[in-house]
Amino acid sequence: MIAPKWFQFRIGPYLRNEKDKRQYHKFFHSNGYIDGIWRLWLLGGGEKATEAEFDSFLWSKRTRIKVFYEDTGFSELNGHHEILRNELIRITRPVFLHNAVVSEPAIGVHVRRGDFSTPVNSSVISTGKKNVQIPIEWYLDAIRTLRSDLGKRLPVRLFSDGDEDDLRPLLLEGEVILMPNRAAITDLFTMSQSNIFIGSGSGFSQWAAFLGQMPTIWHPGQRLERVLDASTSNVDLIEVEWNNQGQTLPDVFIEEATKSIARPNYFSSSLNNK
Q1: How deeply is 36 buried, as exposed, middle or buried, from its count of CB atoms within 10 A (0-12, 13-18, 19+)?
Q2: Distances from the Cα of 62 to the Cαs of 45, 54, 67, 70, 139, in angstroms?
Q3: Which residues pair with 218 in a beta bridge?
Q4: Which residues on adjacent β-strands are paired with residue 196?
């Protein structure tokens, strides 16, 4: 594999004064990938072909490079979460891994603010409008319902780029820990170790749920696409869209959530094998 080009200067996070400046080149190394001068030589002189074209290039005398253009979201990744997360752990620099380890079971909650807009009418959230802020009250009701249905007051790890005033209703709920400002990859790994996850309508939430494969709750209209393994039994009842109008969670969801709480932490074993 040719090493990805992680460095891209993004001015938006600086203009919006976001906590995460998205400097991804700091997170990863390229060990095991084609990099440096060899990478430049290949990209400059190699013969590029799509997957469909590649076989017809077999007799070419030039170096062949297979290029993947498809942008199909998570559909092409379905069922490959384990190999992808192990590789992501492998290429992440150790300094960003050690702070990601957690030992206690918890509910993970991701509240996206930052560059997400506040909808004039909250009903548009349920229509599938992207990049909008979900009301804090929905997250609060989801935590309360989940704790009630589980029959235990499981701690909450709260991840957010919002300020404490905005998050105050959640922080006053009790046993809710606001995670400190850390590197995005560290937060992603920690979020993915949640035993149950309450996501925002963002790609960051999707990646956490995909890597962790835990029972997940989305606001109606904000489950942008399926990220849990489609071969999982009753997957529709484990990755749910939930409203806060007195709706309980499916029995299958609570059963799987209970199993997830007792399940060994994938991250610790993966880190030991690194």
Answers
A1: exposed
A2: 8, 13, 15, 24, 56
A3: 241
A4: 107
Residue 35 in tokens? 């990099």
The CA-CA-CA angle for residues 66, 67, 72, to 5°, reads 130
**What type of residue is 253?**
F
Domains (ranges, CATH) in the chain? 12-95 (no CATH), 103-272 (3.40.50)
Which tens digit of pLDDT belongs to each residue from 192-246? 999 999 999 899 999 999 999 999 999 999 998 999 999 988 999 999 999 877 7
- DSSP structure class, residue 236: G
The two three-digit tokens of residue 15, written as one number: 């203009």
Query: pLDDT per residue over 151-202, tens digit each?
Result: 999 999 999 999 999 999 999 999 999 999 899 999 999 999 999 999 998 9
- Name the residue type at position 23: Q
pLDDT at residue 119 tops 90: no
Residues present in the chain in total: 274
Do 133 and 116 meet the contact criterion of CB atoms below 8 Å apart? yes
